Amino acid sequence: MNEGPSEPAQPSEPEPASTPPRSRFEDLANFEVPGDAVVTGRRTPILITAAVVLFAGALFAILYIVLLLPFASSDRGSSVSGIVVGFLLVYGALQAVAGALVLLLRQSGRWLGIVLAIVGIGLGVARASSTPASGLVTILLNGFVIYALASSGPAFRRG
């Protein structure tokens, strides 16, 4: 019943002498990458924020029509303001639809949001000539929407 003395555990492989010694923080041999790192079908905070930005864009388009457009001085006549009102109504409605589809994780909402954000960047560049701060904020918010929707593609896949 006498068992022999247990031998100390030997390292599995000794390091070659030519390799300089490394600290334990540099040893990535035990670093494991989880296989299911891409989460599908889940609303991430960045997607929720992108949807909120799309809803805010829709709200601001409607507020612009209701509050600012009646007081804007237009030398070109009412036909131009009618076109602007029509464009803003369609653009605001599409932003609201895109925000809802992004929250529902629909692939069509992702692409619609990206297209609307590209249009929004164009509007921000046009606005930057008259009001630079407002144009820059518009460009940055729409750039964020593009980034969020483009980088969160796996969340829109059904898994």
What is the fold's blueprint, element by element?
Blueprint: H1 45-68, H2 78-103, H3 107-128, H4 132-151
Helix pairs in contact: 1-2, 1-4, 2-3, 3-4
Describe this structure in words.
The chain has 159 residues and is an all-alpha fold. It is elongated and about 95 Å long. The mean pLDDT is 81. It has a domain at 45-152. Helix 1 (45-68) runs antiparallel to helix 2 and helix 2 (78-103) runs antiparallel to helix 3 (107-128). The longest helix has 26 residues, at 78-103. The chain starts with 44 loop residues before the first helix and ends in an 8-residue tail after the last helix. It contains four helices and no strands. The protein has helices spanning 45-68, 78-103, 107-128, 132-151. Helix content is 58%, strand content 0%.
Briefly, what is this?
The chain contains 4 helices and no strands. By secondary structure, the protein is mostly helical.
Contiguous uncertain segments of 5+ residues: none
| String of helices and strands | HHHH
Largest sheet: none
Query: Count the helices. How many?
Result: 4
- Whole-Å distance between the termini? 57 Å
Compute the CA-based radius of gyration: 28 Å
Beta-strand segment tally: 0
- Quickly give the structural class: mainly alpha
Shape: elongated
Helix content: 55-70%
Strand content: under 5%
What's the pLDDT, averaged over the residues? 81
